[in-house]
Structures are given as C-alpha cells and as structure tokens.
Design brief:
Blueprint: H1 4-23, H2 26-34, E1 45-50, H3 54-65, E2 69-77, E3 88-92, H4 99-114, E4 120-125, H5 129-132, H6 142-155, H7 159-167, H8 176-181, E5 185-191, H9 214-223, H10 232-242, E6 260-266, H11 268-281, E7 285-293, H12 297-314, E8 322-328, H13 342-354, E9 360-366, E10 378-382, H14 385-388, H15 392-397, H16 401-408, E11 411-413, E12 423-429, E13 449-451
Parallel strand pairs: 1-2, 1-4, 2-3, 4-5, 5-6, 7-8
Antiparallel strand pairs: 8-12, 9-10, 9-12, 10-11, 11-13
Helix pairs in contact: 1-11, 2-3, 7-9, 9-10, 12-13, 13-16
C-alpha cells in the first residue's frame, strides 16, 4: 500500500515533468524562428524533414507559411502524427528503420533536389531523424542498416558514435541533404536531442557539415567488437571509404554550406529550466546539476542515488525539501531478455540504492513520451518501492524494468508528446510544506500520468 508521502512525491514528480514537456513544445519554437525569416524573396518554398517531433513542427510551419508551401514531406515515427493540409507525414520505423522510412527519405531527397537557386527549403529536424532518414548508400540494403542499427543499440554506444556510423552508411544524412538541395537556400530548424547540441549529431546532421569520417566509423565498430558482426557490405563500404575510394560526407568549409543556416530552436536545457521553475513553485530548494549526463544507465543511477543519500544525511548539495534535476541521455548495455528502456532501467537501478530512505524519490522519463520499445516514457521509484516489490534485482538483471514498474503502477505514461529533447531526471528529497492557494500545475494538452 502506498503511503500519503509516496503519493505526494509521485504527483510532484509528474507535475515537474509536465512543465519540462510544456517548455519543449516544438510548434512554438518553430513559429518564433519563422517570424524572423523574410520569405518574400523566394519563388517557391519546400518543407522537408524527419523526427519524432516532426508533426508538431510541420503544423507550425504550415500555419505560418500556408499556401506558399509548394510541396512538403516529413518522416515521423508511427503514431506521432497530426492533421495537415499541405505537408505530408510519412509514418516510418524507429528506432529500427523500415521500408516506409526508406521510401520517404528517397522522396525527401527528390524534393530537395527539385529546389532551385531562388527557392527556399525549410528543413525540420528533431530526435529520431537518424533512424527516420534511412536511405542506404548503394549498394547497401535496408537489411544491412537494420542489422547494424540493432547491433549498435545493444552495445552501449553513445549517440554521437551511433550517428557517426549511420552517416557513413546513408545517402541523406551527414550533410548530404544540404548537398542535394544546393544551390537553394536552406533554413534548417533543429530540436536538439543530443549531448552538447552539436549540429552534426542532431538527427545525424542532414544539413550540417560532418566532422566524422569513414575511419571514425570503422574505429567505433572495432571499439565495440562489432566489425566482424555487421553485414559484410557495411564493413566493406567503411573500408573503401577509409581508403578514399568513396567520397566523404561534406566537411566544414565546404562552399555548399554558405547558403545553409542551421538553428537550434529547442533543447534539453530549456526543458530543465522550466522543470526547475515548477519545482520551486511546489516548494522545493532546486538545483539543475547537469544537462549533459551520459554513460551507462546503471552507473548514472547509482550516482543519483548517492546524491539523494547525501541530501538526507548531510544536507548537501541542498537541504530538504530538495529537487535535483539532470538531463541528457544514458545508454543501456543489454544483458537480459526483458522489456524496458533507459529511463525505466535508471529508476529500477536507483530504487535498489534508495531503499528505505524516507521521503526520497527518483524519476526519469524521455520527453518524446517513449522509452525503448515500450509505451512508457519512464518510471518513478521511491524509498518504499522495494518494500512493495522486493525482487527488483532479478528484474534488473533481466533488463525487465517495464514489467517491474507496470506491476506497481509506477510507469509514466504520456503517449506521443510530439517533441524530443532527451531525458529529464529528478531526485526529490523531503515533502514541501503545504502552500495556501491553488497548487501550481504546468499547462500541457497530454499530461503525464502514472499507470496503476
């Protein structure tokens, strides 16, 4: 049975996360940027792109540009859609690409190639674009890219390493979409879901200069012991590229980028600041510790649990009631055959180390509303979690965090949020004193809730 304090901690965590989601609204970010562009000098306007937030971004572009859009196509994840009139949404596979993604990427490349010098190409890129623009470079096949993606997903590679490999197997990412659009003007609006907001890493940088090389991609596969496991066509392409037998992706300084402008319109940092404002409104002493947390999920979870213990035992870095906020994106090395994602695994690993701590909770969720191959955004755990379900270690060993938290009713379910700025993690320690008046809440059309 959940105690009143446990219910309060869970409600507060969800309220803080909702505020982060509201701040990551991609439609508003796109509108603000488009207001600064002079469109009168262009003959035709094309809207293309890919990503989990593609539907919301496309809606904003369509409202602003209306009939001036000559053609438009955005590849989006299945279920992440919206009603549009002039821009087509093509639902595709993510995180493992599929044939619909290939066909959509081919058509996007064709639209970009049809643009002339007097035209404008508006490119909308958000998290997930790497998998949603999966056009294989000949003679690679979709199957080659799918198998390589599966291997990279399971090895614990960081997102920038993941993308460095995919860019050199692709005909569209790594600046190659900008190459196809030349000599048209390109206005790329980017919703960042990567550590450091690097232009060449967001969505594998389809409109940005690529600083990685074929040799870098080969080194990454070797580092994780994958070179002998990827399809032979993949290892052969990377080897030929490393020898200079295949042209590299466009690099910094290439003249084609003189007519390309890449603008980050949303990021994890903005979401964390909104979360901090909501936490303070709820009565917590609040600290944004870092927005660039990465590494193995279980180790990151142990670090957060150690901070929770330090708050309780020493009042550092904050005295209770305290809320410590971090962002970024961790990785999971698969050991078992269970169901889950990095945010649920974080909560489960942290639950082991905060067991028994009074009035302490952790929360982690993806701003895109999905966590791994599940319908959950993340999960909530507190000092009472193990008392309610003691077999947490067994579930963690099997990477089966989804089933563990589903049984407790502690999954965070948002549905597709149509945004993606990485993850939000919370440490809550202590219960704020009740405040007079209405309890503050963030406005959000699809609020997070715990399923139970």
């Amino acid at each position: 049975m959940r105690t009143p304090h446990s219910r309060t901690l869970r409600q507060n965590a969800l309220s803080i996360f909702e505020a982060a989601l509201a701040a990551a609204d991609p439609a508003e970010a796109v509108r603000r940027r488009l207001e600064r562009v002079n469109f009168s000098r262009f003959r035709r306007i094309y809207v293309i792109g890919a990503g989990k937030a593609g539907a919301s971004m496309a809606q904003a572009a369509e409202r602003f540009l209306g009939r001036r859009i000559a053609a438009g196509l955005i590849n989006v994840k299945y279920g992440h859609t919206a009603r549009l009139r002039r821009i087509e949404l093509n639902e595709s596979g993510h995180p493992v690409p599929d044939e619909r993604g290939v066909e959509g990427a081919r058509r996007i490349l064709e639209i970009a190639g049809a643009a002339g010098r007097e035209d404008l190409v508006v490119c909308l890129i958000s998290g997930g674009a790497s998998a949603l623009l999966p056009l294989p470079a000949p003679p690679l096949t979709l199957g080659d890219m799918q198998e390589t993606t599966r291997l990279l997903l399971g090895c614990g590679a960081a997102i920038h390493e993941f993308n460095a490999v995919r860019k050199h197997l692709s005909a569209v990412t790594g600046g190659q979409l900008a190459r196809a659009a030349a000599p048209a003007r390109v206005e790329a609006l980017l919703l960042s879901d990567v550590i450091g907001d690097s232009l060449d890493v967001i969505g594998s940088g389809p409109t940005a200069p690529d600083s990685s090389t074929f040799r870098d991609a080969s080194d990454i596969l070797c580092r994780y012991g994958l070179m002998d496991r990827v399809p032979e066509s993949v290892s052969e392409r990377l080897a030929r590229g490393g020898l200079g037998e295949i042209p590299e992706t466009p690099k910094p300084g290439d003249p084609l980028f003189a007519r390309v402008r890449n603008t980050i319109v949303g990021s994890n940092r903005l979401a964390l600041r909104a979360a901090a404002r909501q936490a303070r409104a709820l009565g917590y002493r609040t600290l944004i510790l870092a927005s660039e947390v990465q590494g193995e999920t279980r180790e990151v979870a142990r670090m957060h649990a150690a901070i929770a213990r330090e708050i309780v035992n020493a009042g550092q870095p904050l005295r209770p009631p305290a809320c410590v906020i971090t962002g970024g994106e961790t990785t999971v090395t698969l050991r078992g055959s269970g169901l889950g994602g990095r945010n649920q695994e974080f909560a489960l690993a942290a639950a082991l180390d905060i067991a028994g701590l009074p009035d302490v909770a952790v929360f982690s969720a993806g701003t895109d509303g999905t966590d791994g191959p599940t319908d959950a955004a993340g999960a909530f755990a507190d000092g009472e979690t193990l008392a309610r379900k003691p077999d947490a270690r067994r579930y963690l060993d099997e990477n089966d965090s989804y089933r563990y938290f589903n049984a407790l009713g502690d999954l965070a379910i948002t549905g597709p949020t149509n945004t993606n700025v990485m993850d939000v993690r919370l440490i809550l320690a202590g219960i704020p004193a009740p405040r007079p008046g209405r309890r503050p809440r963030a406005r959000r059309p699809t609020p997070a809730k715990a399923r139970g």
